[in-house]
Amino acid sequence: MKRWMTMGLVLVALMGVSLESNAAVPASVPLRLWHSYRGAERDALEQVVVDFGRLHPEWPVELLAVPYDAFANKLTSAIPRGNGPDVFIAAHERLGDWAESGLVAPLSGDDGLWGAFFPATVSAVTWKSTPHGYPLAFKSLALFVRDDLIGGSVPADTDAMVATCRGFAKDRPGSFCIAWEAGSFYHHAPWLFGFGGGILDDKGSPVLDRPENAASIAFVRDLTNEGFLPQEPTSALVTQLFNEGRVAMVVNGPWFLGELAQGVPYSVHPLPRVSATGGATTPFLTVDAAMVSARSLQPEAARALARFIAVQGAATRLVDAKQVVALESAFDSPGVTVDPIVLQFRDASALAIPMPNVPVMRAVWEPASQALRSALRGATEPADALKAASKRISIATRPRPAAANPLPAMVGLVIVGIGALIWAARRFRRDDTWSRMRASSHAYAFLAPAAIATAVLVFVPFAVGTGVAFFSHYQGEFTYVGLSNFINILGSTDYAVTDPLSFWFTLAVTIMWTIVNVFLHVSIGVALALALRRPWMKLRGVYRVLLIVPWAVPNYITALIWKGMFHKQFGAINGLLQWVGLEPVSWFSHFWTSFAANVATNTWLGFPFMMVVTLGALQSIPAELEEAAEIDGASAFQRFFSITLPLLKPALLPAVILGGVWTFNMFNIIYLVSGGEPDGATEILITEAYRWAFSRQEQYGYAAAYATLIFLFLLAWSLAAGRLQRRTK
Question: What residues contact 694, with CB distance under 8 A and at least 6 apart?
Fold first, then answer.
């Protein structure tokens, strides 16, 4: 920590140097600017950078657009290694974590400048009383209204909104009054605050288990049960319904503007107040800021660029990108015509509160959203769901393991290494390996590139990952903790074995997931291959092509399609159930239905491979064997189990082994279809490792321990399967 504080003081001192001092920086070393803007925002930023270049030709700027989903991870990986940007544009919610990790430089000084921004935006980029970024633009949720569907005044409170919804539902059956991503805790926050609830206590610790929070969830659940709000609404569904005129009001942010169809009549308004409490429905305020890297080699130039984008570039971003800029004076600039929608968002954001920028918030989003979805589906009462969420947050924010002495581990590694070298030397000498290698030197020369590539791309990353499992990661620093991660995982020290967070529970689900899927893959694949083998089957070539299509389509696309088919209200599967007179199923509300949805999707993806393998193996089975057995009176059942299946085993066993490994680590299906719902019960080991790494305060060591255990389990499975395969030969 002292090292980072020292670096921060040095950077602050450097910022006091005159701008001319940086003129000596070679023009061949440009300032690196990272962002995640797209479309009009990207174009406006590029124009601002061009304007900066005209004013400061001595400081060339290199822009890099990084995908939003990967932005934070790339940033935290690149900056400590000196490969990151000098300036980066990002939302303020991770500011506290980045400041504590020494990634972003404090911006002391400029005392007369901070008053030019909207006060809430300055508060958002402030950490420990010091700004750590120049506010660029702010975003918050507002109420989009279809002017052709809602006549008269827009509801000012929730009582008026419910009354409007009752009338709307009566006049337009099959349509919805209001919609938003109800399963997203970010989108639920306005109602939570409106009911008097909260997230953090006075000490900055997360406390979700509050009656006010439960009341806000119950309110949204009632809207869903009465048919005013769609069930399980997603972003794509909300957009589709609004564009089609099937929903009158939508709660969304300014990014929604780019998703609206041309010609849709709409207006933007503040969210209605909560009648039960009289409180304002207060959304989160998200502030995009230009931040200076603490590792920048040109700190003053980087600061000048960040300040230019925020101040001189505000008008360009306001007009061209239609950003709700943080600079107040930009709205009154001469010759600037501001889009009325931008002004509406500015006014609607007046009551918004900055999203907390404390590091602990990263542990809140996942369990809070899980609790919200569980309660809205009717699987859990709101109060019980919030209690479960609070427990998960406490586990994710538990104290890190104590530091351990690395000396015993280092001595052990040295002993193991020396022992391995001695064993290898004796083995080589005993078997005369060196002589045989010299005799086949040309063969080893051909294999060398593949061996080197395997070592670099497989063994080195594996060794590094395994090593990380013995460390604890917190705020950018790794601490050696020995076997603590493995002890916590295998001992389930913070939760019961039956809890979805337990390694043993997840392992049981993973094994069951693998067995069920591989069984279905093999049985369906073999059955289809046998059917396609029959000479009386017409158009066999066409059928083979059609049956391979599920395998050819990228699995993430297939997963998203099946996810939509399992939607409770709009999914094709529930539509079919209703067509035959059955009740629709909330597939992701209960373990077995959610598990079945995952299995169905993965079965669709997996059977073509087994079918192709079986078709190839069937070509090698002499038809005379089956004909002779048929003449001897053997039934089709007897011929299959006595002749066909034994001859298929040499080809099927390797495919089963490979399919088991694939299924065991089938991340995409679990992540995209069920998302681990309900309450993480359908997570498998690989997705649970991902959660620990990226959703629960970046506990990389804990996740690496998970990955190491996965490898050991698959290694044992491969060795056992290989031995079984040798016995069947």
Answer: 73
Neighbours of 728 (CB within 10 A): 9
Amino acid at 211: P
Radius of gyration of the chain (CA): 30
Rounded to whole angstroms, the Cα distance separating 343 from 337 reads 11
* Separation of alpha carbons 228 and 578, rounded Å: 21
CA 44 to chain centre: 28
138 DSSP β-pair partners: 287
What is the DSSP secondary-structure string of 177-189?
EEE--TT-HHHHH
Q: Which two tokens stand for residue 21?
A: 């001092």
Tokens of 244: 């089609």
CA distance 50 to 43: 11
Query: How many other C-beta atoms lie within 10 A of the C-beta of residue 411?
Result: 10
Q: Which two tokens stand for residue 537?
A: 């089957």
Q: Given this model, what pLDDT does residue 161 score?
A: 92
3-state secondary structure at position 506: helix
Q: What is the pLDDT of residue 90?
A: 94
* Residue 207 DSSP label: -
| Cα 669 → chain centroid | 13
Pairing status of strand 284-292 against strand 266-269? unpaired
Contacts of 663 (CB under 8 A, 6+ apart): 513, 514, 517, 518, 521, 602, 606
Q: Are residues 206 and 64 in the same domain?
A: no
Q: What is the pLDDT of residues 554-603, one digit of tens each?
A: 888 899 999 999 998 888 999 999 899 888 898 998 999 999 999 999 99
Whether the Cβ atoms of residue 124 and residue 92 lie closer than 8 Å to each other: yes
pTM: 0.83
pLDDT in tens, 89-101: 999 999 998 998 8
| pLDDT at 8 exceeding the cut of 80 | no
Please tell me the distance from the alpha carbon of residue 187 to that of residue 515, in angstroms, as a whole number.
38
HSE on the CB side for 361, CA within 13 Å? Answer: 19
What does the DSSP 8-state code read for residue 79? G
Structural domain contains residue 474: no
Residue 352 falls inside a structural domain: yes
pLDDT for residue 25 is more than 70: no
Q: Which amino acid is at 65?
A: A
- 3-state class of 499 per DSSP? coil
pLDDT of residue 533: 77
Task: State how far Cα 268 lies from the chain centre.
Answer: 30
Range of the domain at 267: 142-282+364-396
pLDDT reading at 431 higher than 90: no
Residues 204 and 117 in one domain: no
Task: Look at residues 87, 133, 45 and name the one whose alpha carbon lies nearest to residue 321.
Answer: 45
Three-state SS at 374: helix
Is 195 inside any structural domain? yes
Give the whole-angstrom CA distance, residue 124 versus residue 675. Answer: 31
Helices 460-468 and 700-728, axial angle in degrees (round to 10): 130
Quote the pLDDT of residue 728: 64
How would you class 424 by CB atoms within 10 Å of its CB: exposed for 0-12, middle for 13-18, buried for 19 or more? exposed
What is the residue-wise DSSP string for 155-166?
PSBHHHHHHHHH
The answer to whether residue 509 is domain-embedded is yes
Tokens of 336: 């600037």
* Residue that the structure tokens 């009289």 belong to: 278
Q: What DSSP letter does each residue of 39-72 carry, written as one string? A: HHHHHHHHHHHHHHHHH-TTS-EEEEE--HHHHH
Percent helix, strand and coil across the chain, each to the nearest 5:
60, 10, 30
- Residue 17, pLDDT > 80, answer no
Whether 618 and 631 share a structural domain: yes
SS3 category, 252: strand
CA 528 to chain centre: 36
SS3 for 603? helix
**Cβ–Cβ < 8 Å for 107, 11:** no
The number of domains in the chain is 3
Clarify whether residues 181 and 327 are in a common domain: no
